[in-house]
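May I ask for a protein sequence together with how it folds?
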Amino acid sequence: MRVAIIDPPAYTPPYDRSLAAALARAGADVELITSHFVHGPVPEAEGYTVTDAFYRRSVERFDSRGRQAVKAFEHLGDMRRLRRSGLDADIAHYQWLTFPSLDAHLLPRTRPRLLTPHGWLRQDAWRGGPARGLRRLLDRMDAVVALSEYGASLLRTRGGVPAARVHVIPHGAFDHLTRVPNEAPLPDDLAAVEGPVILCFGLIRPYKGVDLLIEAFRQIEGAELWIVGRPLGMPLGDLREQARGASGTVRFVDRFVADNELGAYFRRADVVALPYRDAEQSGVLFTALAFGKAVVMTDVGGFSEVAAGGVGRLVPPNDPPALAEAVGGLLADPAERARLEAAAAAAAAGPYAWDTVARQTLDLYGTLR
């Protein structure tokens, strides 16, 4: 079976490449059609091919500000070129599409076609204009893959997708990040820290609730909070000011952290916190599972479905005292922390293993042909 995985903006290279590699291991002939990821190295292609078919001029010639402006103009031509050339594939599986309203009219004719709508299955994504464009795109798909039952319900009720076209295939644990060659050590100042560490990792965005975690951290003693990731759509000034009121140390690493650096942060963390206000799923969660970490996460989106398997500790959203109690309790209870670590590792090797995800995905492809 020839499979094309299409992610024009390269928003989810770890997911794209993990799925492509797992499908290839299962015997599929896979091509990943995407653009160059400008922020750092990506996993090597293992058993599949990669075609950088999008945004070649903006990637090569402009800084980040100019790149965004030029991408909008490039996108139309790149999508038209992909449509004219066709896809040498039996299945077209889209991950991200940059402009849903436009792309709904520019899709290559290859059928069946599927969409996994990463990042669109949050409540805030369904308010106003973007949801209308997404609905048009969903209507043109033969199947839509949600990463959780929560996401599937949102697609049926808010997206208007017929139930028969909605399928749930879970996110996979990013185990490849646990064996990156030439893994870099922590920066010296972080490596010198001796006490417990709470890690908040990933893009810093309003819906991720970093401010709630800092508020909760005010009630936790004897630990450090590390906020690691690049801010997107929000300034850090208010968070830094808020952090000054904490009794413990809050450290910001406000930049993109490459794969070869990431492992050191997760290995050092005693607890990984996901204080999100809204989400369907999170790549950070499935990175934490791969590293066998105790996780505290808010009861939003599909997080409760992961927690139902005995993984992590769930707290109400927008509740800093409950967040502080859960995180502080785990720091003070090594035995419970070890139990959750073992559960995380087992989940990563079992229901969230990429080979399991690939089998479910291929089964779905088979029903559509």
Summary: The chain has a mean pLDDT of 93. The CA atoms of residues 272 and 288 lie 7 Å apart. The chain has 15 helices and 13 strands.
